[in-house]
């Protein structure tokens, strides 16, 4: 089968579409014929080795972890999935920018609703489940104010919508070009991160500080700086890591790897299929243009997800 492959830790422009053996289903695994795959920042870090301390990779590495497709083989012990089932999921280092991949039934794999196409389904797993886990970890409740930093990216667009659905007042970072779009998803206000200081602008909108900061951009000491946008005793949640002490009684919540609960991915997929969750496809590429897709994802401002379709 063909796959987008890194043969070693390497620059992104040395990725190639190469021939690899088609995977087989081991016990408790299914093989999925890929119809669409989506990219996430970690995919790029695995290629370059930027994340090798935390996530060492074996080579050849197949790029991508988010997938939508159809089950073509079910291994011994699999229940609930059979050949012909339409699915979406997160496959980790099995790799998804390929003609076939291997997935493990569990919270990271779900059946795809009939009216959810593969392109939109592939754009959900990692970003959507991360947004769910962040809001759950920080215990966001209705009526609270929340600042989402990085709101126009993969995780951010879901976080804005899910926070709005929880009846939070959402302030979202967005350029002027994306402001109307993000308000249409439920943000009450936007702050232009390219033109202004996000903390100062947020404090103009909520002078005592917001209840919760969801920061999808900063890490380390950068998180202590943006924690000033939270009220004394507020919370800051990040999918990355940062200081234990953010000052002013602001509680840090760092989730590390996302750990979904059973049903989270089904719920996201059914909300997307019903129109209750908007899935923004920022750019869509044919399989033959997968190297370009990675380059654009790494280098351009793209609102929403980058998806590669596989014939
Ligand atoms: N722990 C986990 O399990 C987990 C899971 C998923 C993601 N993550 C991490 O979460 C982070 C976000 O992921 P993602 O998939 O949402 O990434 P993404 O799709 O690349 O989105 C990042 C967004 O942040 C915006 N941005 C960049 N600098 C900004 C700034 N200074 N202020 C406000 N917004 C800014 C970007 O806009 P521009 O295009 O204008 O730069 C982009 O819209 C990444 O670091 C990723 O590795 C962790």
TrEMBL record:
Q: Which InterPro entries match?
A: ADH-like_N, Chloroplast_QOR, ER, GroES-like_sf, NAD(P)-bd_dom_sf
SMART domains in the cross-refs: PKS_ER
Cited Gene3D superfamilies: Medium-chain alcohol dehydrogenases, catalytic domain (3.90.180.10), NAD(P)-binding Rossmann-like Domain (3.40.50.720)
Q: Superkingdom of the source?
A: Bacteria
Domain (Enoyl reductase (ER)): residue spans on this chain? 10-308
**Cited Pfam families:** ADH_N, ADH_zinc_N_2
Concerning SUPFAM superfamilies, the annotation shows: GroES-like (SSF50129), NAD(P)-binding Rossmann-fold domains (SSF51735)
- What is the name listed in the Swiss-Prot or TrEMBL entry for this protein? NADPH:quinone reductase
Q: Which organism is it from?
A: Streptomyces cirratus
